[in-house]
From TrEMBL:
Pfam families named among the record's database cross-references: ROK (PF00480)
Identification of the protein by name: ROK family protein
Family: Belongs to the ROK (NagC/XylR) family.
InterPro entries, per the entry: ATPase_NBD, ROK, WH-like_DNA-bd_sf, WH_DNA-bd_sf
Gene3D superfamilies: 3.30.420.40, Winged helix-like DNA-binding domain superfamily/Winged helix DNA-binding domain
Organism listed in the record: Microbacterium schleiferi
Domain of life: Bacteria
Length: 398
């Protein structure tokens, strides 16, 4: 008979092992022993249990390593995936993100009309049904994460408002879960982007971070304080795009009485280069190769206004880094020093002396990885409760 609490202790230890390979990548059993403080035989038993559940795989150690006892390598199984969804005003992106953050498959569906919450749920269900027969035929789908450009109520995933999508009090979590039969998590896109960049990207290892994401629907933000995401009492924290920046030069103002995302916007950059629609890589390429003075003038104007907003964040939050994603990263591309100087010129010197402005390094994957992270949360907390135990063939010597 198990001692009281044995099951919960084992669950916590399984979660520690799975969390290590999820966050850190492939790890040897020896490294897992060192990281967790558990003994080698316990690590071997836990890894075997995770292998049987289909959550990790083990491979033989590098044969060139001849010093000491060989230690098998434990890796998150790429066949365990979460489906990430990012509805936007110009497209819907759906991807299957594996437990090791790799993208198993991805689909971007261009839109000329705004998608409704119901249409989103149907599109996700149809896509998953197709993938189960094709790209994900031998995969296990844990759940779905939806990154929404709007205010998402933390307790129930209700989208209170996504103004650019024209969603109001939309029960998107319930709609998607009902349509797919899969557990669904919903959060603000920039909040999820901040989590992804903090865990795996430009802010990895930093405890105080401001993240701003620029997308087709405007500018959102996320905060990491003492290593933890800050969501606010209802989950609405980080709406930097709704701030009203002071604009020193009257000629810089293009949207009288507008907020930050009215002045610093993707649509204005698209118009400047003569495009009506483009994904981020295309827009970034056009901006970087343009020699049109009007394009340079618009990027400089947006950069000046953005710097004021960032200086306000520096003065209030004193972050170690500011990470810019989406089209905001394009404003920093090739001009990071200029943007940093503009921010420092408007910040309290002590607050700004340690701040570093960085572009998001996860690029187009940032929101998808963040959404997948939300979908993986229950699995990472209690691995075996989320997976049907099944025989799992060894991929190498143990």
């Amino acid at each position: 008979m198990l001692e009281p609490g044995t099951d919960s202790v084992r669950t916590r230890n399984l979660a520690r092992i799975l969390g290590q390979v999820h966050l850190e990548g492939a790890r040897s059993r020896a490294a897992l022993t060192l990281a967790t403080g558990l003994n080698r035989s316990t690590i071997a038993d836990l890894v075997a249990e995770l292998c049987t559940a289909g959550l990790v795989t083990e491979t033989a150690p590098d044969p060139s390593r001849r010093v000491g006892r060989p230690s098998p390598i434990v890796t998150a199984d790429r066949r365990v995936v979460a489906v990430a969804v990012n509805p936007e005003v110009d497209a819907v992106t759906i991807a299957a993100v594996a437990l090791d953050q790799s993208i198993a498959t991805r689909l971007r569906i261009e839109r000329t009309e705004l998608i409704t919450p119901g249409e989103t749920a149907t599109l996700v269900a149809d896509t998953i049904a197709n993938w189960r027969e094709t790209a994900l035929a031998d995969h296990h789908i844990v759940g779905i994460g939806v990154a929404v450009p709007g205010l998402v109520r933390a307790r129930d995933g209700l989208v209170r408002t996504a103004p650019h999508l024209e969603w109001h009090d939309a029960p998107i979590r319930e709609l998607v879960a009902d349509a797919t039969g899969l557990p669904t998590a919903v959060d603000n896109d920039a909040t999820l982007g901040a989590v992804a960049e903090h865990l795996y990207g430009a802010a990895r290892g930093l405890d105080h971070v401001v993240y701003l994401n620029g997308g087709a629907s405007g500018i959102g933000g996320g905060l990491i304080v003492h290593g933890m995401p800050v969501r606010g009492v209802s989950g609405y924290a980080g709406e930097f795009g709704q701030n009203r920046p002071g604009i020193a030069a009257a000629t810089d103002q293009q949207a009288p009485d507008g907020v930050l995302e009215d002045e610093v916007s993707r649509s204005r950059l698209l118009r400047a280069v003569g495009l009506t629609s483009a994904d981020d890589p295309t827009l970034a390429a056009v901006l970087s190769t343009s020699d049109d003075p009007s394009v340079a003038a618009e990027t400089d104007r947006q950069r000046r206004i953005l710097a004021t907003a960032l200086a306000n964040a520096v003065n209030v939050l004193n972050p170690r880094a500011i990470v810019l994603g989406g089209f905001l990263a394009m404003l920093a591309e090739g001009a990071a020093d200029q943007l940093t100087e503009l921010v420092r010129a408007q910040s309290m010197p002590a607050n700004a002396e340690d701040v570093d402005i960085r572009a998001a390094v996860l690029a187009d994957d940032r929101l998808l990885i963040g959404a997948a992270e939300a979908a993986f949360a229950a699995l990472l907390a209690d691995p075996l409760s989320q997976m049907p135990a099944r025989p799992h063939p060894a991929e190498g010597a143990r």
